[in-house]
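Example record

One chain of 343 residues, shown exactly as stored in the release files.
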Amino acid sequence: MTATLGAPAKATTAPRQIRWLLRVHRPALYAWTVLVVGLAGTLLWLWGPLTDAAAAAWKQYDSTCWRATPCRYDQDAILRYKDVYQFATTAVLAVPFLAAAWAGAALTGRELETGTARLAWTQGVSPLRWLTSRLAVPAVLVTVGTGLLGMLHQAVWSAGHGRIDTAKPWEDVPTFYSGGPLIAGLALAGLVLGALVGLLLGRSLLALCVSALGMAALWIGVHLTLPHLWPVSTSVSGLRGFPSYSGIKIEEGIVTSAGDHLPASTCLSDLNPDCRALNDRRGAVGFYIDYHPYSHRWPLQLAATGALVLLAVLLAGLALWLVRHRTTGTRAGGRATGAGAAV
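Predicted C-alpha cells for this chain:
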C-alpha cells in the first residue's frame, strides 16, 4: 500500500485521453451525430425537392391566378417549404445553446461535482492536459458540424431567393444568423463559455442553466455589435422623399445645410406642415439613412465570426489559467502527502 501511494502514476498519452473522453461522453457523441446528420438531411431535402416544388407552385400562381378563375396552384408545396424552413432554421439556431449547456453541465461541471476530474489528475494527467483534451475534441466536432449546417442553410436560402415569393430576405435575423460561418462561431464560443462556467460553479445543473443564460447574453452582445463591424452605406434624398434602401438599417436622420448628418426619429418627411416647420428650424435640407446592403452580408458574417473565435480563444485561456491557479496548491499538497505516506 505504501509503495503504491509513493509510486508516480503512469502518464496518460493524448490519444488515450481522447479515447477515454469519447467513451465517457458516448451518448452525447451519438446525439450530436444524429442531430447533425438529421438536420443536414432536412436541409438537403429543403434545398432540392422542396425548393423546386415551392418555386414551381409560385410560378403557377404568378402566371395563372391573376387571369384564371378558379386559381389553381400547389399551395401545399408552398406551405410545406415554409414549415420545414422555419423548423430547420430554429433547430440550427438552437445548436449554440445546446453546446453551451452541455459543456457546462457534462464536460466540466459534472466531472468536478463527482470528483472524476481530481481522480484523473492523480493518474498522471495534469489539470492543463485534462482541460485541453476536453476543449479541443468537442471544439473540433462542434465547429465542423455547425459550420456544415450553416453552409447548407445558406445554400437553401440562395436556392429559394428570387424563386419563392415568400422567401425570407437576407437581413431576416434568424436567416442571417443560421446561414454561414457565424453560427459556427457562436457554437464554438458557447462551448468554451459553458466549459468555463462549469469550472467556476462545479455543479452540473446550475452550470447548465447559467451557461444557457450566458449564451443568450453573448448572442445579444453580438447582435448589438455586429452592425458596427463593417463600414455602412449611406443613402441621401431631398426633403420631398425618403431615401430608398434595402438591407439592415442602422441609423436615419436629417442632412443639414452644412452637410452634417443628425440622427432623428420624427418628421422624416416634409409633406406635413408641422414637420416642414420643424425641419426648417432644424436647418434640414434632406434626409439620410445608414444601412448595410446585401453586399455587406459576407463581410459582416466573417468579421463577427473572427471576433467570436478570438473570444473563444480568450475564454479558453481564462479556463486554463483558472484550472492551473486552483490546482497548483492541491497538487503540491498531494505530492507532499504521498511522500509522507511512503516514509
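Notes: The chain has two domains: 2-229+297-342, 248-292.
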